[in-house]
Design goal:
heterodimer; A: 265 residues; alpha/beta; B: 291 residues; 2-enoyl-CoA Hydratase, Chain A, domain 1; seven-stranded mixed beta sheet; two-stranded antiparallel ribbon
Chain lengths: 265, 291
């Protein structure tokens, strides 16, 4: 698979046929009950909030949802969350902490929504508060980057004890289009930007930002890729087994040290 | 002045090769007092002397001009009370995007600072305080790994020494040229603040023009109390991006300090002339938080 360029992977990650959160959740969890709303302003369909069972163990699920067809894309704003999405995530994370449920987050977003209402309702504050809250949350958090992880909008759900990436997923400070537009004032040079951005799973593993890569078949995984779902399950099983045995105080301390060491000078 | 620049250039030449341990350079305090300054907002001209005595607030339109960290300190703190921390810190392992090093060096030369934030400990009205000031003149105050590290160390210093913490934000956001490392600074600084807050520390965040992107979406918005200077641009996404997304023209006051206050995201807007006194009062109120 190493012959694939970063741009190739971005194309795979963004493909409409690639499984989305709504596809993979039933393959990983049983008895899923979705929970809606931020108890403040509204619900955000770009974030699926739920409780479910992972091999019998109750967990809280926070999954960014891009939608599987145009109708769903529009309904969930192509996975671009509004402030109420981040506040819903925080509400459910606090609930998970209270009831000692580990949290599994699924990352799949081009970024937080750059909308008028999003600004009016405090997009910056919502993301900042989410980063701060997850930093000291007293329950294990595992993040899986499914396809696309863009900017602070993805980071807000990535302050986790473990971060795994699908082999063809990308994770970056902003989209390659945005990057090209800043670097060369030319969005059409996205492909060139992609190769400079070090946004693939391999790049991030090398930098020590993620904990592991979930391998995919050539050309990307699909709905029939049972082997891939098996890998994801075995990673969640293994990590839950480790993380739930660590004393909460130590868990939070280790999480701090993990992020404290990032991008060190 | 020319000699100073020459000397600075020599120093730059020296560390361009090393990059790891650059010499620090200091900005000269004196300036040509009769020089004319033009207001960025109304275009009105004043002498630099008049502008400085008015705290770099335009006498005709009340526009608050951007300050350098040195100017901010001069206006705010008790005389000669500043002790800078991590002054010489610079990155050894930045991803070298095309043109980044040149741009960085140019910014060092123009501003006389080595990075987009100045941190340290100072007295304000007799209150010992950990203080960080972002510099919008240095690569738009963008946060790369050095800015994130310096801010984090400042928060940890405040935590260790039980000092109140003040950060003046002025930033376009995370520094694109350093890629993912810049993004992670948002998590790092926010995590440090989470611990500082849990330990009872008092954090006063002051938003100045402009505070946007990854800086507003991390430490800038996490103050126990958040102040803003009048007219400052404060927001997450850029205006052009939002207009393109929404396909509509945004009102003129969109993302101004006044707009953000009306929406409930800052505590107070404080004019520069009242800022020192307001900060002293707030520090006095939270004295017990720091013990």
């Amino acid at each position: 698979m190493s012959h694939l360029t970063a741009w190739d992977r971005i194309c795979i990650a963004r493909s409409q046929n690639r499984p989305k959160s709504r596809d993979i959740l039933p393959k990983l969890f049983d008895e899923i009950i979705e929970l809606y709303g931020d108890r403040c302003y509204g619900d955000d369909a770009a974030l699926i909030g739920a409780i479910g069972r992972f091999e019998g163990v109750p967990v809280t699920i926070l999954a960014q949802s891009k939608g599987r067809d145009l109708q769903e894309n529009l309904a969930c704003n192509f996975g671009m969350m509004n402030p109420e999405g981040y506040r819903k995530a925080m509400r459910l994370a606090k609930q998970a902490e209270k009831f000692h449920r580990p949290i599994i987050t699924i990352i799949d977003t081009a970024g937080a929504f750059p909308g008028k209402g999003a600004e009016e309702r405090g997009q910056a504050e919502a993301i900042a508060s989410s980063l701060k809250m997850f930093a000291t949350l007293q329950t294990p958090v595992i993040a899986i980057v499914l396809s696309e992880g863009g900017s602070g909008g993805a980071l807000a759900l990535s302050v986790a004890d473990r971060i795994y990436m699908m082999e063809n997923a990308v994770y970056s400070i902003l989209s390659c289009e945005g990057f090209a537009s800043i670097l060369w004032k030319d969005e059409t040079r996205a492909k060139e930007a992609a190769e400079l951005m070090e946004c693939t799973a391999m790049d991030l593993a090398k930098k020590g930002i993620i904990d592991g890569i979930i391998m995919e078949p050539e050309g990307g995984f699909d709905h029939q890729s049972d082997e891939v779902y098996g890998q994801i399950r075995s990673i969640i099983r293994r990590e839950l087994n480790i993380l739930t045995k660590i004393r909460v105080k130590n868990l939070v301390q280790q999480r701090y040290e993990k992020f404290r060491a990032m991008g060190n000078v | 002045m020319n000699q100073l620049f020459k000397k600075r250039k020599e120093q730059l030449g020296f560390f361009q090769g090393l990059m790891s341990k650059p010499k620090s350079v200091s900005i000269p305090r004196e300036f040509n007092e009769s020089a004319i300054m033009v207001c960025d907002s109304c275009g009105g001209a004043s002498s630099k002397k008049d502008m400085a005595s008015n705290l770099f607030v335009c006498p005709s339109c009340n526009y608050h001009l951007k300050l350098t960290p040195q100017q901010r300190l001069y206006q705010l703190i008790d005389e000669s009370s500043f002790r800078e921390t991590n002054r010489k810190m610079s990155s050894t392992s930045v991803a070298l995007f095309p043109g980044y090093l040149d741009k960085y060096n140019k910014n060092v030369e123009v501003t006389g600072n080595l990075e987009a934030v100045v941190c340290g400990v100072a007295s304000i009205g007799g209150n010992k305080t950990a203080i960080g000031i972002l510099d919008a003149h240095f690569m738009m105050g963008s946060m790369g790994s050095v800015v994130g590290e310096k801010i984090t160390r400042l928060i940890e210093l405040a935590d260790r020494k039980k000092l109140p913490l003040i950060i003046f934000s002025a930033s376009g956001g995370a520094r694109m040229q350093e890629g993912i490392n810049s993004l992670m600074q948002m998590a790092k600084t926010s995590a440090a603040l989470a611990h500082f807050s849990e330990n009872g520390g008092f954090y006063l965040s002051v938003l100045t023009h402009p505070t946007t992107g990854g800086v507003s979406a991390s430490f800038a918005m996490l103050g126990d109390i958040i102040l803003a200077e009048p007219g400052a641009l404060i927001g997450f996404a850029g205006r052009r991006v939002i207009e393109k997304t929404m396909n509509e023209k945004l009102p003129d006051n969109f993302q101004t300090a006044e707009f953000i206050k009306e929406k409930g995201f800052v505590d107070r807007i404080v004019a520069r002339k009242q800022l020192r006194n307001t900060i002293i009062t707030l520090l006095e109120y939270h004295k017990e938080a720091s013990i």
